[in-house]
Amino acid sequence: MTAPAPAPAHPHPHPHPHPHATAAAAGVRGGGGALRLFSAERIDAGDAAAHPEAAHVLDWARRFLTTAHPDLGRSGPVCPYTQPSLRRGLFHLAVAEDDGTGAGGGGGEGSDLPALVAELRARYDGLLAELTEESDRELLTVLLVLPGVDRADSTALDEAQRKAKDEFVEQGLMIGQFHPVCEEPGLWNRSFRPLRAPVPLLAVRKLLVFDLPFLTGDETHLNHYLARFAPEVPARIRDQLVTSVRAHQRAAA
Q1: What span, in angstroms and rounded, lies between the C-alpha atoms of 8 and 135?
Q2: CB–CB of 95/200 below 8 Å?
Q3: How many angstroms from the chain centroid is the CA of residue 60?
Q4: Across residues 54-60, what is the average pLDDT?
């Protein structure tokens, strides 16, 4: 779920982590769930030492998502939102724990991926509720790291993301999947694979006006987008626009 265009500028005089710290963000498991949630700062401090995959993913995010890539097909970093999110202390990683019962299972066999997605959403909503500035709400990002998911087959993760995306987009959120063998092509270079990560994961952030290119392949998603960002356009005209965009895509395919 990389961004389709450079992020809007969110100038802020404070380059330090966001002051709103919660128990979950500090790495404390709460609510009896199967996830442990860490801020990037707590991972750097060693609080996630029992979950080395969290530090692995954070390192990948810093090395890959925040930098340019020669195969990306446009200028700028792979994801223009990651560095601002990190800078503001709004970048978090949740790790699915294996509690020995198969309920969490690191997202692997025996795990309930939909239940993990639901808890991910709940954790995201809890963090979002503490933010008052819209610029901070736009930068809040939570990655659900799933070390138990098969790294040679992304089918289960792709399906979980596909099923969750309808509800997430309708409610103003984006959810994207990253996987070592993810075949989702880039927007500007169809041979580039921007959603490949060393560990399977799901990423959640706010739906932004710049996300339109991610949504044109599905009429329902496109309708939700237009209803949110172009509410003054009559529903009949929105429907005509959706039909036109989809027809153009089919003709270009």
Answers
A1: 9
A2: no
A3: 14
A4: 98
Owner of token pair 């580039």? 192
Q: Which amino acid is at 45?
A: A
Instruction: Give SS3 for 224.
Output: helix
**Nearest one of 92, 56, 52, 60 to 79, comparing CA atoms:** 60
pLDDT at 28: 38
Question: Could you tell me if 35 and 144 are in contact, meaning their C-beta atoms sit under 8 angstroms apart?
Answer: yes
Q: Which of 125, 120, 139 is nearest to 81 (CA)?
A: 139
Question: How far are the Cα atoms of 109, 165, 170, 179, 233 from residue 150, in angstroms, in the given order?
Answer: 8, 21, 29, 9, 44
The secondary structure of residue 197, as a DSSP letter, is: -
pLDDT of 174-198, one tens digit each?
A: 999 999 999 999 988 999 999 999 9
Distance between CA atoms of residues 13 and 238, nearest Å: 39
The Cα 71–Cα 245 span in angstroms is: 27
Q: Which residues contact 44 (CB under 8 A, 6 or more apart)?
A: 58
Match 């802020």 to its residue by tokens: 12
Q: What is the DSSP string of 62-124?
A: IIIITS--TTSSSSS-SSTTHHHHHHTT-EEEEEE---SSSSSGGGSTT--HHHHHHHHHHHH
- Local structure of 205: helix, strand or coil: strand
Contacts from 228-235 at CB under 8 Å and sequence distance 24+?
A: 228/172
Q: Reduce the DSSP state of residue 173 to 3 states and report it.
A: strand
Task: Name the residue type at position 88.
Answer: R
Q: Please give the model's pTM, rounded to 2 decimal places.
A: 0.81
SS3 24: coil
